[in-house]
Amino acid sequence: MSVTLKDVAALAGVSRSAVSRTFTEGASVSAKTRSKVEKAALELGYSPNALASSLTTGRTKLIGLISNNFHNPIFLEVFDQFTRALQERGLRPLIVNLTDETEPANSVRMLRQYSVDAAIVASSTLPPSFAKAFHDAGVPVVHTFGRSATSPEVHVVGIDNVECGRMAARELLARGYRHVGYLGGPKDATSALDRHRGFTEELCDHPEINVTHCFASAYSFEAGRSEMLRLLADSPAEAYFCGDDILSVGALSALAEHGLKPGKDIGIIGLNDMEMSRWQSVDLTTIHQPIKQIITSSVDLVEQMLKEPQRYPEARIFPCRVIERGTLRPRL
Amino acid sequence: MSVTLKDVAALAGVSRSAVSRTFTEGASVSAKTRSKVEKAALELGYSPNALASSLTTGRTKLIGLISNNFHNPIFLEVFDQFTRALQERGLRPLIVNLTDETEPANSVRMLRQYSVDAAIVASSTLPPSFAKAFHDAGVPVVHTFGRSATSPEVHVVGIDNVECGRMAARELLARGYRHVGYLGGPKDATSALDRHRGFTEELCDHPEINVTHCFASAYSFEAGRSEMLRLLADSPAEAYFCGDDILSVGALSALAEHGLKPGKDIGIIGLNDMEMSRWQSVDLTTIHQPIKQIITSSVDLVEQMLKEPQRYPEARIFPCRVIERGTLRPRL
DNA sequence: GCGCGGATTGCAACCGGTTGCACCCCCGGG
DNA sequence: CCCGGGGGTGCAACCGGTTGCAATCCGCGC
């Protein structure tokens, strides 16, 4: 069926080693041999079997990409960036869709069976222990969008969610809101908890401010919308920090259904700055998370780990900033 | 480093073959041997190397998933469905992000290097020749969302785009629009061309109707928006068939910016029925494409091809239907 | 013309499994 | 008690490459 090393060797009249060497970077082959081999390879349409070579080299260039955010539009951007960044470096993403799972055991086993060189956990909801399971199984791992503070054993690339919560709180204060609310993601999502913590901590110093909070059932449009509908039914706050842009968009829909104008009747500030937030019909004031930098950095880190698997774990935290659009009233 | 067959064999006191057999379905092993092996395997945390075994079995369970639609929100749904459907069947998606490429050569080579068992081309814009390149290279392939009529050599699963164009035209006629337009995807996308063809063919029989058409630069929000802005600047039609929901959403934004009410001032009908189209703030009348069925069917087909690689090619076409929402005026 | 050393090359073992085949063991029937 | 046969087992070859090592080649200086 497929053409192998041996076929090329036979046609070129050299040993199998010679063929192997012409296809491996930096091996010692004379120009003459190389050209004979290349000619034969071209003629037969040969290209080396990456899996077979992985057996001896121990490197597959396969990178496990594990996520559970398949319902948040931001993931489309994340996904595009990851696949491109990996491809550019000659690495191949092997996807794991975690949607209904939170136990790492299956993914770990599966990715080990495929001998991935490393794994990337791309999720803001999974706990540090999830990524650690890969580490413990000997799979180099980066947790992108992970919780930073408490993960000394695993590389984390992302943002400081607590600080983002603070930032949102300061922003609402600066605009003179007196009754503010947090509309977060699911209660078991680390990002939802951390953002909540920052938000409430910052407001502790302001006893005059009335603070409420609630958690949506998921990072999704419907969850944001239905949660906001619930809030609107019973004396809502003046402004909300939504833990994610997709929740914000859901909340905005709820406002519209009640005939309320965002920014005027009720303030909304999101987090992520996904593409859709820029759309004129959405025009969401939000905290920008530098997705592209985070992903590039994550893939860089993965690449480094390939050379140095035992690399000392680090947290790479990127600053966020508020993007002013139309869903908060002006600063005082 | 990692534990191998040999280690387990040694601990269990049996031959390597025995271990291999206890891990392969339907091999002949006595209960006693099996239990000894399982105990040893558990103790060592052994799990077989899928890549090594692929060398002799010729099966990797790796499926190449190739796409270029990373900027259309519908792809999030597509992607979720594909990865889940594959996982459920024990297959592993190896992603190729084609974004800036239209030549199959690189993807084919790469996927062959990784010995994928099959490839899925998930794109409504790539020509049949793209998928055929995989077929010609001996890689079983399914073109999902591909052009149906002209691809006798490759499996295609999707919809009849020409018929969808017709359907859109009939829908606009039924609502009494006299001046209608087609706002399609990129001119080189097969789906844009086919939908255009159906749309104009259907209207040929109605010389009293004024028909215009244009093609956006991409299937994206911005492309739809800017194209509609251009149209609005110069005597627009009464209603448009947008070749994709994301174009529709962009077009809707343009309408809003001009203070025009969709369904009242200008009609819009899309295609796809993506989740966002259901949002109250979008409320897009559109042609529903049965994404889930298409994907399930595609993966079924892939699975069949694993058993029967030379299977005679077929086109699986799923019917679409109009979903009435708020962006067209009522039927007469 | 000869010797030397670095560059090339082929051999053979190995990576982690799978599998055809021969052999062994055990049981039941004659 | 002997024989036949089927299931279970291990040996060894093989899947498609890689790589350490020893042998060979070649050009150059003396």
From TrEMBL, chains A, B:
The keyword Cell cycle does not apply. InterPro entries: HTH_LacI (IPR000843), LacI/GalR-like_sensor (IPR046335), Lambda_DNA-bd_dom_sf (IPR010982), Peripla_BP_I (IPR028082). PANTHER family: HTH-TYPE TRANSCRIPTIONAL REGULATOR GALS, LACI-RELATED TRANSCRIPTIONAL REPRESSOR. GO terms for molecular function: DNA binding. Coiled coil: none annotated. The keyword Zinc does not apply. It comes from Ruegeria haliotis. This is LacI family DNA-binding transcriptional regulator. Keywords: DNA-binding, Transcription, Transcription regulation. Pfam families: LacI, Peripla_BP_3. Residues 3-57 form the HTH lacI-type domain.
